[in-house]
Design brief:
single chain, 4 domains, 5-stranded antiparallel sheet, 3-stranded mixed sheet, Clc chloride channel, 11 strands, 690 residues, globular, alpha+beta, CBS-domain
Length: 690
């Protein structure tokens, strides 16, 4: 690290430490500083896109004068070629793209985003969009905002927990600045980056950062709506249901778009990149965009110009249909071949086309009088919400971009209908599906997948309080004062558990205790709805039981003999194990870069008595999930990562690193990265013969 950087960082930290301010004041100042930094970065990003657009379509097109009108076909291809060279020169940085990287950094890297990644993902999408790539700026903008916030947090020596919060706030602030939608930016960060995890402090940071960034954006870029239209007429109450139908229709198209995007991604990676160099695949995608733009120039770039043309009725229905088909087909090809950009703006574009076409069909074939403007605007929100699964953000972004709130009910109906359709059919958002395809298993409850890999027997406590169901209440009260447990389990003459009793059951009878202590037995006041936890149950199931029951421990039964209690499991032990596992996953993710340097079969010491090794899985492991293999129980080893060879030059080592997930099934070409005691690691060398 350069000495001037260290000196600057030290100066900032010492200056702040001398200023004695309340914690909330410091929090507020930091949030505003981050919002301001992100706002200026977003303005630079916006202006850079316009600059490169002029470079490519002005100067470059002039230099290709000998091609005549066909010069425009080559411009997107030139942009894609430049991006391919950037990928080739910095493959690891190039692979960390888009909103999914911000989600990963917030979820498992404590908000850390290397600044060199931020610089790369500033330049690459500027070239892509500036050269006519038919994608949007929001994904790179979110990555830019998160990266700027992460870097500034490091300079200010902010804690990891706060850095995670500010990184998410930076991503939301960038969306607020790029789209001029402060509320949309706030809920973008909540719905996508933070996976709907709401905390008061985080929400405050999002508000302060997004409003600050949006204010700076409005100062330098203006506050006018990007869309020009007359006030829409939503129609009579009898036509409101058409907006719900439009939402369902767009939801179905959103589902098809996500599926097509995944299929094209698989086809490009498995069939094209295995046979052709990536630069040639990217250039072909660029030529397709150029060919489309030769006939319909509005397909180039972000697409707001085309939406305004539709709002002004400058297109026939056939032209709108062709534009939709082009955008639908080309966006996944550009992104999956290696181009850089986002899908928010394409979603707005496609939604506008579908809304316009829906109104046209209903008016032409069914004699209705639907306003195309209203359906076009509502369609934008429905497609944005459907593809990205962000209903609240979609509604707010459309309102703030159009600065018109007259069609709130139709917009809400369409967005909710579209989002529900996609959620029911896909079960997840496009961003989480992308992470899943990369080997990550993040969900709105990130603890779920961690707990599914751990079983009750691993935290089983052998001690458990058992009392005969005929025990007098007085005897139970004496026992409660003697043991640390707050729960007793009753058993009958056949030694079967029949119920349980806690202090809660005793409270109602305290006033009558002197009269009934020698009369009542514990069976009379016990709870009989016993939930059986078996030693083979995973802790995800156990935690769900704890959430539904107001108890701190549960009895554990043997799977081989369901009537026999073998111990208990405590809520605090489950939480403790969850924290340890999250720490392990953070360790794995943080070590990912270093682990690339470990050779297969080489044991590397990481702490006193503990090592890491890369090893080819045993033949009997192939096709089995990590949860089924139970390597922790059987061998005392943790699977930190799975290395998988991949084609192309997206990684310096040529390997794809996958965070261990309990549902992941071992494949023949996998390499397991194992962590454990030295003696257990040494035993794995015998696996080569198995």
């Amino acid at each position: 690290m350069p000495s001037y950087y260290k000196k600057t960082k030290l100066f900032i930290q010492r200056t702040i430490s001398k200023i004695h301010l309340p914690d909330y004041s410091v929090f507020t100042i930091y949030s505003i500083l981050i919002g301001a930094a992100v706002g200026f970065a977003a303005v630079l990003f916006h202006n850079s896109i316009e600059f490169f657009n002029e470079v490519f379509f002005g100067q470059t097109a002039s230099g290709l004068y000998f091609l005549g009108a066909f010069a425009v076909i080559t411009i997107p291809a030139i942009g894609m070629f430049i991006q391919s060279m950037m990928i080739r020169s910095m493959p690891d940085i190039a692979s960390k793209r888009g909103v999914s990287e911000v989600i990963k950094s917030v979820a498992s890297k404590k908000g850390n985003i290397p600044f060199r990644n931020t610089i790369f993902h500033f330049i690459a999408p500027v070239i892509c969009i500036g050269s006519g790539g038919t994608v949007g700026p929001e994904g790179p903008a979110a990555q830019l905002g998160g990266g700027v916030a992460s870097k500034l947090s490091s300079l200010l020596n902010i804690s990891d927990q706060r850095k995670r919060m500010y990184t998410a706030a930076g991503a939301g602030a960038a969306i607020a600045a790029i789209f001029n939608t402060p509320l949309g930016g706030i809920f973008f960060a909540l719905e996508i980056v933070l996976l709907n995890e709401f905390e008061t402090a985080t929400f405050s940071a999002l508000i302060l950062s997004s409003v600050t960034a949006s204010t700076i954006s409005r100062t330098f870029l203006g506050n006018e709506s990007v869309f020009i239209f007359n006030t829409p007429s939503i129609g009579s109450f009898d036509t409101i249901f058409h907006y719900a139908l439009l939402g369902i229709f767009i939801g179905a198209v959103s589902f098809l778009f996500v599926k097509y995007s995944n299929l094209s991604d698989d086809f490009i990676k498995k069939h094209l990149l295995t046979r052709l160099p990536q630069w040639s695949v990217m250039v072909m995608a660029g030529l397709l965009v150029g060919a489309a733009g030769y006939f319909y120039s509005d397909i180039f770039g972000i697409g707001y110009k085309a939406i305004n043309h539709m709002l002004q009725n400058k297109y026939l229905w056939s032209g709108v249909l062709i534009l939709f088909a082009m955008k639908f087909l080309l966006v996944p090809l550009v992104l999956n071949s290696g181009g850089y950009g986002g899908i928010f703006a394409p979603a707005l574009f496609m939604g506008a086309c579908l809304g316009y076409l829906y109104a046209f069909v209903m008016n032409y074939f069914f004699g209705l009088n639907l306003d195309p403007t209203a359906f076009l605007l509502v369609g934008m929100g429905a497609m944005l919400g459907g593809i990205n699964s962000i209903p609240i953000s979609a509604i707010l972004i459309i309102f703030e971009m159009t600065k018109d709130y007259s069609y709130i009910l139709p917009l809400m109906l369409a967005v909710v209908s579209s989002t529900m359709f996609v959620q029911i059919t896909l079960k997840n958002s496009i961003h989480l599906l992308s992470l899943t395809r990369q080997g990550y298993r993040l969900s709105e409850k990130r603890s779920v997948n961690v707990l599914k890999s751990i079983f009750t027997e691993e935290i089983l406590r052998k001690e458990i309080n058992l009392i005969p169901e005929e025990t007098k209440i007085a005897a139970l009260v004496n026992k409660l004062s003697e043991v640390p447990h707050s729960i007793f389990y009753l058993y009958n003459k056949e030694n079967k558990i029949t119920g349980y009793i806690t202090e809660t059951e005793l409270r109602p009878i305290i006033s009558e205790y002197e009269h009934i202590q020698s009369v009542l037995v514990v069976r009379d006041i016990a709870q009989t709805n016993i939930v059986k936890i078996f030693d083979s149950d995973d802790l995800d199931h156990v935690m769900k039981v704890f959430e539904n029951r107001d108890v701190d421990e549960l009895p554990v039964f043997s799977l081989n003999n369901p009537d026999v209690v073998i111990g208990s499991v405590w809520r605090k032990d489950v939480i403790s194990m969850l924290n340890k596992e999250n720490l392990k996953h953070n360790l794995a993710d943080g070590f990912a870069k270093e682990l690339k340097t470990i050779g297969a079969g080489i044991q590397s010491k990481v702490a006193d008595g503990y090592s890491i090794i890369e090893i080819v899985p045993r033949r009997d492991f192939i096709g089995k999930s990590l949860s089924l293999l139970r390597l922790r129980n059987r061998y005392g080893l943790e699977v930190l990562l799975i290395k998988k060879p991949r084609h192309g030059y997206m990684s310096e080592s040529g390997d794809k690193l996958i965070i261990a997930d309990p549902n992941y099934k071992i494949e023949s070409d996998d390499i397991l990265v194992l962590f454990g005691p030295d003696d257990k690691i040494a035993e794995t060398k015998q696996w080569e013969n198995l």
